[in-house]
């Protein structure tokens, strides 16, 4: 026979686990120090410049 579950409890448990996942993502995104944020931004801009510098210019066809 199937196990009887309380749907209200199951819904609340799922909401709680979802909220914990969102909280963990927010802690990772917003819980960094100013130095860490600045280092990440510097690295992002360095990679962007590196990729832009490696682009090949192709002649436009008319």
Any descriptors?
62 residues; mainly alpha; 2 helices; 71% helix
Number of helical elements? 2
Order of helices and strands: HH
Radius of gyration: 24 Å
Unreliable runs: none
Number of strands: 0
Question: Mind describing the biggest β-sheet?
Answer: none
Strand content range:
under 5%
| Distance separating the two termini | 72 Å
How much helicity do the residues have? over 70%
| Global geometry | elongated
Average pLDDT rating:
89
| Secondary-structure-derived class | mainly alpha
Task: Walk me through what this model shows.
The protein is mainly α and 62 residues long. 71% of the residues lie in helices and 0% in strands. It contains two helices and no strands. The protein has helices spanning 7-30, 34-53. The mean pLDDT is 89.
In brief, what are we looking at here?
The protein has helices at about 5-30, 35-55. The chain is elongated and about 70 Å long. About 70% of the residues lie in helices and about 0% in strands.
Write the layout of secondary structure elements.
Layout: H1 7-30, H2 34-53
């Amino acid at each position: 026979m199937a196990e009887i579950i309380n749907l209200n409890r199951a819904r609340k448990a799922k909401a709680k686990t979802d909220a914990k996942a969102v909280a963990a993502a927010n802690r990772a995104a917003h819980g960094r120090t100013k130095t860490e944020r600045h280092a990440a931004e510097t690295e992002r801009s360095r990679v962007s410049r590196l990729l832009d510098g490696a682009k090949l210019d192709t002649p436009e066809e008319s």
